[in-house]
Amino acid sequence: MKSTVRTPDWNALTEEATRLLAEYVRLDTTNPPGHEALACDWLAAILDAEGVPYERYALDPARPSLIARLAGDGSAGGPLLLLNHTDVVPAEATHWQEAPLSGLVRDGYVWGRGAVDMKGMAILELLTLLACRRLGIPLHRDLVFAAVADEEAGGTFGIDFLAERHPDALDCDFVINEGGTGAGEIFGVRRPVFHVGIAEKGPLWLRLSATGTPGHGSVPHDDNALERIVRALGRIQAWERPTLLTAEVSAYFDALHCAGILPHPPTPEVLRALAAEHPRLHSMQTNSIAVTTLTSGVRPNVIPAEAAATIDVRLVSGYNPERFLAELRGVIDDPRVRVETIFSSSTPASPMDSPLYHAISEAVEAICPGAAVVPSVSTGFTDSRVFRRRGIPAYGFMPLLLEPPDMGTVHGNDERLSVAALSLGLRILFQVVRRICA
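RESULT FIELD:
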């Protein structure tokens, strides 16, 4: 007798996803300060109603993480972990069409901070887990849902705390996380493309500081701390760094060319032209530097005694931070400018040849025929770094098909996610999980 393949009622699940995302966006988990307990309480109530067991882990009671688990028989191996973060970045409400925490459903979109980054993905992961539970799908490995705190500020209260104090809670064979989305159009070519993040640049946040001789602004002198920092920043901005094409970035451009998105073979000349036109593509190919803060002075007529600036450096995968620091000090060429590391992280890439990567490609083709699946490199960093360091394949794969006007809203104004993207994402993620776990 032919077995019946159990699948969700997709229309009903889409309606549920829309309602839950609107509710979730309304929870203010802006970081700082976080208040991720609001998200954990909300998720816990849903899981309790469905009879799904979970645990909370917290360095700070107001900032917990939650991990839920559907047990499998283990015959396929270790768990698949569906990872998401509960905090969101601040929003400047005066520049939004709708209130950032409104959770308004309008014109086929759910509006609000975190709709894409990454409460929308959290809802996809949550409902995929619940669909497996409701349908009674036999699982051959554990399916784990992990909603963690503090990703937007570096992970001290979230993934880093879990990795240090509760490493067993993170044990798994594979991870699906943020770090890659779908795009309806790239370089003006209309074709669905789903990015699978296999690597990310390493953050190296630095503080430059100097001290000098204070005095009256009417008597300038050569020991002005602020001028020293300004000169250092000028030299950094004028620093022409070489193109550094990693294997993962090369694979990305090769895949775009094979998919017909990039019309010409990705020669160095073509890549230089793309980098000149697209800042993100330039960042993928270089050690990027952005000046982010500058602090000094007390009054317009007082030469300051101290000055400091911070720069956000993102190193290409595999680049040694100590080597970069030595290069930077040589460019600054001023021993009185101190360079201090605030935060540093680097991780290896995940393989493009793994059961999960293949399952993603197969699921996309099954649900969205003709779409391209390409390996990609994130210019930002994610919580996947903790797993990649442990040798666990972690992929940035949010199967949300975004249009160009929507992609720029992440960390920007008018962040929103279409109901159509939610619906398609549910189908794709369910297929991926089914192929790996069932």
